[in-house]
């Protein structure tokens, strides 16, 4: 089966709640790093899977499983809560501590020794990405979608599904800059250090980024997010939502800024520049209330008019009754006079 095609990790995705603590990148979910990448942070997550020829500049702490593919290097310790899979020619400058089983390849260098509470098997494990995609691809090819879903659930250990940290192939992640050649997305409630360089950037809400944003295409800064730097795009659109603050300059092809956003620097746009304002909907309710009052007043007038008509009709009836009585009184003397004449 041919495995050629697009890279399975096609973007930099930072899940919600990710923080940079000292020199470690802390994630609630899984960590998946593409091959030939450089991550100068340490990594702390649930399950950690590192591709081929990846360099990690700190400790790796995995609550679940940890996979290090061939030719990886870790400048620190590797602490694994469950099972570990170490490919051939991996170098770890610190200790390797595994609570479960250890599956290790040939020519692995662990400078300060290793310890495993479970079984230790010396062989060459199948690389993580290759193994996962071979199995899933075969299941999907034969139409076993239910089995593929069960496998994905098993890989997640049955826990709640959390968005993983995805680092694409050839990325450079450090305290100075996050450089990728793909789109980049940042979730909500994150705290990141470093300038972000990507094809396009979308930052969620309530984030704080200690660095600038630069992209070839569009950039979106979510509500209540603070950017400690410039926001620059070559020809795309920069969108700054309500409550966001940019502590620097903004340069873009087109610019869309909410009226509640705060920009400390200058605004430059080669194309259109738009200011988004909130629409106050309260005045729209006033005419309806006035119309209701008018309807009530007109209804009251109709009732008064009908009452007046009733009183007028009663007065007319009374007058007609009086006139009839007067006619009868006048008619009586005439009859008496006729009798006397007779």
UniProtKB/TrEMBL annotation:
<dbReference type="Pfam" id="PF04519">
    <property type="entry name" value="Bactofilin"/>
</dbReference>
<dbReference type="InterPro" id="IPR011004">
    <property type="entry name" value="Trimer_LpxA-like_sf"/>
</dbReference>
<protein>
    <submittedName>
        <fullName>Polymer-forming cytoskeletal protein</fullName>
    </submittedName>
</protein>
<feature type="region of interest" description="Disordered">
    <location>
        <begin position="268"/>
        <end position="342"/>
    </location>
</feature>
<dbReference type="InterPro" id="IPR007607">
    <property type="entry name" value="BacA/B"/>
</dbReference>
<feature type="compositionally biased region" description="Acidic residues">
    <location>
        <begin position="290"/>
        <end position="320"/>
    </location>
</feature>
<feature type="compositionally biased region" description="Basic and acidic residues">
    <location>
        <begin position="268"/>
        <end position="283"/>
    </location>
</feature>
<feature type="compositionally biased region" description="Low complexity">
    <location>
        <begin position="321"/>
        <end position="336"/>
    </location>
</feature>
């Amino acid at each position: 089966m041919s495995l050629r095609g697009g890279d399975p990790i096609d973007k930099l995705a930072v899940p919600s709640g990710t923080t940079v603590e000292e020199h470690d990148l802390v994630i609630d979910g899984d960590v998946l790093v593409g091959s030939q990448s450089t991550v100068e942070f340490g990594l702390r997550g649930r399950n950690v899977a590192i591709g081929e020829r990846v360099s990690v500049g700190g400790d790796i702490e995995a609550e679940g499983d940890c996979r290090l593919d061939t030719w990886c290097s870790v400048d620190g310790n590797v602490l694994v809560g469950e099972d570990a899979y170490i490919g051939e020619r991996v170098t770890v400058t610190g200790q390797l501590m595994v609570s479960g089983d250890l599956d290790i390849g040939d020519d692995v260098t662990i400078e300060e020794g290793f310890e495993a509470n479970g079984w230790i098997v010396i062989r060459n494990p199948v690389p993580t990405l290759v193994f996962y995609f071979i199995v899933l691809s075969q299941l999907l090819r034969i139409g076993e979608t239910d089995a593929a879903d069960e496998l994905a659930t098993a890989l997640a250990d049955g826990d709640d599904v959390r968005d993983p940290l995805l680092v694409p192939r050839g990325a450079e992640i450090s305290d100075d800059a996050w450089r990728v050649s793909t789109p980049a997305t940042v979730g909500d409630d994150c705290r990141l250090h470093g300038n972000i360089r990507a094809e396009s950037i979308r930052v969620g809400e309530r984030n704080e980024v200690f660095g600038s944003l630069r992209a070839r295409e569009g950039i979106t800064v979510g509500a209540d997010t603070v950017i400690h730097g410039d926001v620059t795009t070559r020809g795309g659109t920069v969108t700054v939502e309500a409550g966001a603050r940019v502590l620097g300059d903004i340069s873009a092809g087109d610019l869309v800024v909410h009226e509640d956003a705060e920009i400390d620097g200058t605004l430059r746009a080669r194309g259109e520049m738009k200011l988004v304002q909130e629409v106050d909907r309260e005045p729209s309710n006033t005419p309806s209330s006035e119309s209701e009052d008018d309807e009530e007043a007109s209804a009251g007038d109709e009732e008064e008019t009908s009452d007046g008509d009733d009183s007028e009709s009663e007065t007319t009836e009374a007058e007609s009754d009086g006139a009839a009585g007067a006619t009868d009184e006048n008619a009586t003397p005439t009859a008496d006079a006729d009798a006397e004449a007779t």
